[in-house]
UniProtKB/TrEMBL annotation:
<keyword id="KW-0560">Oxidoreductase</keyword>
<dbReference type="Pfam" id="PF00106">
    <property type="entry name" value="adh_short"/>
</dbReference>
<dbReference type="InterPro" id="IPR002347">
    <property type="entry name" value="SDR_fam"/>
</dbReference>
<dbReference type="InterPro" id="IPR050259">
    <property type="entry name" value="SDR"/>
</dbReference>
<protein>
    <submittedName>
        <fullName>3-oxoacyl-[acyl-carrier protein] reductase</fullName>
        <ecNumber>1.1.1.100</ecNumber>
    </submittedName>
</protein>
<comment type="similarity">
    <text>Belongs to the short-chain dehydrogenases/reductases (SDR) family.</text>
</comment>
<dbReference type="GO" id="GO:0004316">
    <property type="term" value="F:3-oxoacyl-[acyl-carrier-protein] reductase (NADPH) activity"/>
</dbReference>
<dbReference type="InterPro" id="IPR036291">
    <property type="entry name" value="NAD(P)-bd_dom_sf"/>
</dbReference>
Amino acid sequence: MELGLKGRRCVVTGASRGIGRAVAETLAGEGADVLLVGRGTEALREAAAAVAEAAAPGARAETFAADVTAAEAGEAIVAACVERLGGIDVLVNNAGTSSVVPLERLEEADWEQQWQLNVRGPERLMRAAAPRMADGGWGRIVNVTSSSGKRPSATNVAYAVTKTAQLALSRAYAEAWAPRGVLVNAVAPGPTASELWMGEGGLADQAAAVRGVDREQVLEAASARVPLGRYSTPGEIADAIAYLCSERAANVVGAAWSVDGGAVPYFI
């Protein structure tokens, strides 16, 4: 299927690993130019090399180091994309992280971190990008939320609550900008076999420590709650995101697609 992404100028945040890196590789493989955004310069360089290897002929992979929670980050990232790629057509708000923290142990800083990562950071980026996209008559924005935003998880309530807020933010921006050709949607992954879950000290290890069980028990229990019986892969999430970024998604606006193997057991 031709997605019509060749030559599109894309920003992907949280692009140095996991879902973000897979998204960058997929978009570049479709011929898009991609600005990879993350906090670590070396990790970005490594990711950009992998993206360049996966890219279609002529597609470019650039990097920009930034913390999306900084007040000026939205304008700075979009300006960098315009300067280096010649404009901006696609924005994938993927930056984010979580940890296993029981509700009673969440502190003010935990709530603020998740608010800035999942709501304020994406909002600033959309506010900077959407008018530029509208001026060109075409744009795609995809916010990577979470199944926790649809079915709140006690693993980290601050994360779940702000992911729900991100869904509401996505819908508000979708209604505001669709008349000007900028289509905003969300994707809600479930448990994914990325570094966040599987890496040393990641969510699996943290949950095992909190529950007093071993890592394999945590992974087996999480897989058992998914009708497909397994974790998603970053590439599977990236495929759904790439479609929403494409010409083919011309009639999809304000949607919140679950890409979770059926983990959320209802329609929303």
